[in-house]
Amino acid sequence: MKNILEAPFMVEMVRTLTEMYRHGWDERNGGNVSLMLSAEQVEGYLEPDRVLRTLPTGFSAPSLAGKYFLVTGTGKYFKNVQYDPAANLGIVRITEDGEHADLLWGYTDGGQFTSEFPAHMMSHVARLKADPENRVIMHCHPANILAMTYVHTLDEREFTRTLWQMCTECIVVFPDGVNVLPWMLCGTNEIGLATAEKMNTARVVVWAQHGIYGAGRDLDESFGLIETVEKGAEIYMKIAHLPRVNTISDEALHQLEGRFNVKGREGYLN
Ligand code: 13P
Ligand code: ZN
Predict the structure, then answer these.
(1) In sequence order, which ranges of 180-249 are alpha helices (DSSP H)?
(2) Gap between the Cα atoms of 194 and 250, Å rounded
(3) Ligand 1 center from residue 109 Cα (angstroms)
(4) In the chain, how long is the greatest CA-to-CA distance?
(5) How far away, in angstroms, is 230 Cα from ligand 2 center?
(6) If 171 and its partner were Cys, which of 113, 128, 164, 244 is the partner (CB 3.0–4.6 Å)?
(7) Which ligand is nearest to the CA of 32?
(8) Do strands 204-207 and 211-216 pair parallel, antiparallel, or not at all (unpaired)?
(9) Which residues of the chain have pLDDT under 70?
(10) Quick check: CB of 31 below 6 Å from ligand 1?
(11) Cα–Cα distance between 130 and 108 in angstroms, integer?
(12) Burial class of residue 56, CB neighbours in 10 A (0-12, 13-18, 19+)
């Protein structure tokens, strides 16, 4: 058996979680990440028939049956992942009934996957329908995006337009915009379903007064997406209380659509 700690997906996951912590997005145990893996990726790194524990998920996701996920553990600090990946992360495979997860590696101290597993798995289902190459769901608590949900309307068109106006690259990185959920109780199937519903139309979902979800084809893409939204929110929080003398006009945003061959969300630009 090859050393799983040297598997490219594991190295990338640990690096990404460490970087998220360094960015201040994941205080204490804040945030969680799930990365879908193929059977080929895990082959040689673990024995697929050796199930360590079977964990109930509390929901049904039959379309994910047989799929492997590398997932952060509940209550785990991103700060510590690099020092003990096996205690802080786990690899699970969704069972045939779609209602359990077989643990194949990790959670060595008896832990289990994140409390936001419903939001992650339901969002994977939604994003895979929109983009069969989606592999990552990433959740964290960046300060500026949170701050923005206290002072800006949560109307999705308005919220997206404001962010697009904050940095030139925003519309290029998230042309599908940002969907927003009002404050809801986290860790529940209800917020999982609501998040997945929002994931049908955008790769970013903001949880008001809580944090952000980003989806992507790999860890870099989802990280970069959240990084860019957070940068837009940071600029907004620096200028929101000041008179706005200049802005990025809708005409300029249309020019960016042409230059970068992207299409802003239908009806969001004037
Ligand atoms: P977990 O420690 O269960 O992943 O929860 C952290 C979090 O961010 C909840 O929304
Ligand atoms: Zn959270």
Answers:
(1) 189-199, 219-239
(2) 30
(3) 17
(4) 63
(5) 15
(6) 164
(7) 1
(8) antiparallel
(9) none
(10) yes
(11) 35
(12) exposed
